[in-house]
Amino acid sequence: MSAATMSTHYSTAQRALHWLSLLAITVVYVAIEIRGDMPKTNAWRPLVTQVHFWAGLSVLAMVFARIYLRWRRPTPAVTPAPSALVARLAAVTHGLIYAVLLVQPVLGMLAAAAGGKAIMVPLLGIALPALIGKSHALEEQFEDWHGTLGEAFYWVIGLHVAAALWHHFVRRDNTLRRMW
Question: By residue range, what is the domain housing residue 36?
């Protein structure tokens, strides 16, 4: 068995991307909550909107890197090994997390494009190309889907955190320690 196969932790890159994703997701949620409390005439509102966009796009970029690394590197074993049911629930939950992290930013980009909102590249002052043309009906539809999925993701995040804590404090296995 190689040293990589016997590893008890995810790689440094995987751990960094996991925690940076958490940070970016937090920024996404905080920015949109702040924006929601701002009057539309507030001079800071466009910047807060762009911060939401930038953090969302960083989540999308990181999820591609995370999927690549997950495909290329072995997953460290959970010790003691969980039951088949617990392992299956973990796989389904992780699949759901990755699906949301892929779909949610794309829905946001589609909503922005349909609403005629430019997504600016930080520090360069240029806009990313719009994915679709302006359409009020599509903007509303994509914003509804984006908002609903964002709210549902709170529950998925909560489930993920609760499961990690359950593994650590109840099962007393190494699930959480693999990501530290």
Answer: 12-172
